[in-house]
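Protein entry
_____________
===
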Amino acid sequence: MANRILIVDDAAFMRMMVRDILTKNGFEVVGEAQDGAQAIEKYKELHPDLVTMDITMPEMDGIAALKEIKKIDSNAKVIMCSAMGQQAMVIDAIQAGAKDFIVKPFQSDRVIEAINKTLGI
């Protein structure tokens, strides 16, 4: 069975890029969210195996959403997506429980490597 992944990013084209990388590599994208609040709702509804979470988003940022998801499911597997130059935020995210991070612009082999490592594939 394919691993089920939730993609969270405020930019539609970024979600599309990640979806494309994942589906080409045999993963199932079960949902998408465009901000942290939506991410929490979708997580509760879909129970994905893994979440790719953008750090900088309107409404609620990725780190706040990560903390809420970890309250719901302490075993949640979340990989943060950051732009270059967000090292301090990446450190905050790892401390909040993120399993890994990938840097934009995405390189498909790095995305798959991070997901496989996090899922233990």
